[in-house]
Structure formats: C-alpha cells, structure tokens
Amino acid sequence: MVLNAIISHPKVGIMIPIPQYPLYTASIALFNGTAVPYYLDEENSWGLSTTELAKSLAKARAEGVEVRALCIINPGNPTGQTLSWENMHEIVEWCKRERIVLLADEVYQTNIYKPAELPFHSFRKVVKSKGPSYDDFELISFHSISKGMIGECGRRGGYFECTNIDPEVMAQFYKIASISLCPPVHGQLMVGLMTNPPRAGDASYPLYKKEMDGIFASLQRRAETLAKALNRLDGVSCNDAQGAMYLFPTITLPEGAVAHAKALEKNPDEVYCLELLEETGVCVVPGSGFLQKEGTWHFRSTFLAPENQMGEFAESLARFHEKFMNKYR
Asked: How far is the C-alpha of 75 from the C-alpha of 67, rounded, in Å?
C-alpha cells in the first residue's frame, strides 16, 4: 500500500539496502518504480553510513530518478545488524536535509542479541527526540507478528504507523485499505496481543515472561553457536548476529567451484547451497538472491533449528564444507 502510494511514475526511486530483502525489489518493480541500491558495510558489521547514502542518491539523481523514500531494515535482514542511536540520528538528519520519506522496517525489534551494546531504538523515538523542528519529518514504521519471540508467520498480522504524514495522504491510505477484504481474525487478534501483552500483576504474566525469556535466551545461544561454527570453516567469515534471525557469512570459493558454476550458468554461492542441500538436507539461501557486492559470495542461514540439534547441524555443515572445498581446489 505504501509503495503504491509513493510510486506515481517509473522514475520514482526507493532506496533499498544491499544485501536486501528480495520482496522490496519485487514490489518496487510491481508498482513500476525504480530501486535505488545502497551498500551496507560488511567490514563494519554491516553498518550504514550517510556517505554511502549520499553516493547512492547522487548517482540516482544524475540518472534522472526522483528519489522519494529510503527503506531501512533494522535489525537487518539478511545481515542481522542493529543500528546505534547515534547512527540513527545521522540517518534522520540526512533524510530531512534531502527531503526523503523514511520507511522503517522494524519487524525484528525484539530480536536483539547484544542489548547492552546495541539496544533497539525505533526511528519514531529518534524523530520525537529531536524536538519541534522535526514535526514535519515524514516517517512510516512497520511491525509484524511474524518475527520476534512470537514468530506467528502463518497468521499474517502486522501494521504500519505513520508519523507526520499529510492528512490527504492518510485519507488515501484509509481509502485503499477500505476497499480490501479485512485481514484474518487470527492475525488481528495476534497484533492486539503483541501490542498489549500481559503485564506484571496479570494472572498470565509469570508464564508469559518465562516463555518469552526462555525463547529469547535460546535464540541468543543459537546465534552465538552458529557464528562460532561458521567462523571455524575454511574461507568463511561471519559477523556476529546483533539482531534479527539470520547470519550472512561471506565465503571465499575455490576457482574450480567458480568455473563449475559458470559451466552450469549458475552463481557459485547457488551451487554451494544446492550441493549442501542435496548432501545434508540443510537449506540455506545463496547471497546472490539478496544481491551483494560484485565478486563476493555469501549465504544466509537462520539459527531457528531446535537448540538440541545445533551441534549436529554445525558438524554436518563442517563435513560438507571440507568435502566441497577439497573437491574444487
């Protein structure tokens, strides 16, 4: 709905992170807009700099693209990074200078694995902290029941919140929403429960807190276990998961693997992932599906497997990796 409202002609640009969540480029194409990529910095824990944003914006404008919005996924998918408070302020200030609407994808906001160092802050909180001079700053924030400790992907519920959006635009949002069928009842109920969870003093609160804390602690341990296992592999380097549900390691593949992939008319990381699936039953997603810097190869892995299977998972991955590397050296 939001992209449909923003994109009014083919030269409207939406800035998206690379690596990216593929549905962004697909949706922008569906509404006949232009995706404007900006690159995350892998060597800086997949960080985001306003210098990179400015470079991407200047290139797009030079090509006649009317850039209207910046999409940020925080915490990141597929890269698992979390933005700092200071970095978020820089991004907000940059958007204001350039008169760009900020689209904040914050669906992984409860998946924060280094809360002492990098706690989650919403962009709305950042904007509100900057005082009256930002009362015209346009922000749309997104959240979902599909992630976090709830993880109810199949129930299809979520919402977006509009901050300082023109009333006439809001009227169009409501008009578009009113012509659609209502979302599933289960999804609506889950959104209500997510935004109004049990509180201290409620009869269900002790069990709710125990379950939520238990799931979180397990995800945190699984993220650390998998990152360590990946970093032990030959030619693999992986940043720690700061947030979300994913690790996105870079992998240096032998020339033989690259040549074999070329003969098959596939990307080398795709060949790696397909052979891993065929040999072990483990499914990871090639980095080429998310886009990546030219000449680099990655894959995305979740750490959602049951905790008691993580050791076996890591061992099977290590065995396959050694065999694959030796095969194509």
From this structure: 23
